[in-house]
Amino acid sequence: MLNHIDYIYEIYKEGAFTKAAEKLFVSQPALSLAIKKLEDEIDEAEEQASSYYTEEKSLREKLTEKENALLKLKAEAEMNENLLRMAKERFSKLETEKANISTQQSDTDKSKKQLLEVISGSDALIEKADAYVALKQEEVRKKRREKRKNQTP
To answer: Residue 26, class by beta-carbon neighbours within 10 Å (0-12 exposed, 13-18 middle, 19+ buried)?
Structure first.
């Protein structure tokens, strides 16, 4: 049994279906039918290839969409990582500032305590000074009284 390639070759060589059919020892309608079946098979294969191509194209488009979505997610993740790193750095700076403020507050509290000690010490000193001034004033008054006594005839 001859195959379709032999039929096509003979048609090509003879230039006509009738002459090719005679050389192949088949009837012209049988040769035409065989060629028609081959054309149908080729058309079917072509349609199937076109379908595969369309499906592949669709899958590639979907893949591209998924790739783009993944790239977008990756970019967002990188941005979030950067924001998180910046937030951690800022938090660390705030912790340092908080510690500095706490130290300053502690130093301020110590200074207040020392100042209060000085002030309360000053109050005692002022009281002593007032007492001393009062004593000296009293002494001056006594001297004046004695002087007046001594001056009176």
So the answer is: middle
State whether residue 152 is helix, strand or coil.
coil
Could you tell me which of 28, 6, 30 has the C-alpha nearest to residue 19?
28
Separation between Cα atoms, residue 107 and residue 85, nearest integer Å:
33
Q: Report the run of H or E that residue 131 belongs to, with start and end.
A: helix 28-151
**What 3-state DSSP class applies to 27?**
coil
The answer to whether the CB of 34 falls within 8 A of the CB of 6 is: no
Tally of CA atoms within 13 A in the half-sphere of 55 that contains its CB: 6
- CA 47/CA 59 separation, integer angstroms: 18
The predicted structure's pLDDT at residue 1: 47
- Distance, in Å, from the CA atom of 8 to the CA atom of 112, rounded to the nearest integer, reads 113
- Euclidean distance between CA atoms 40 and 1, whole angstroms: 20
- What pTM, to 2 d.p., does this model score? 0.41
Domain ranges of the chain: 4-151
- Residues 6 or more apart whose CB falls under 8 angstroms from that of 38 comprise 4, 7, 8
pLDDT surpassing 70 at residue 153: no
In whole angstroms, what separates CA 98 from the centre of its chain?
27
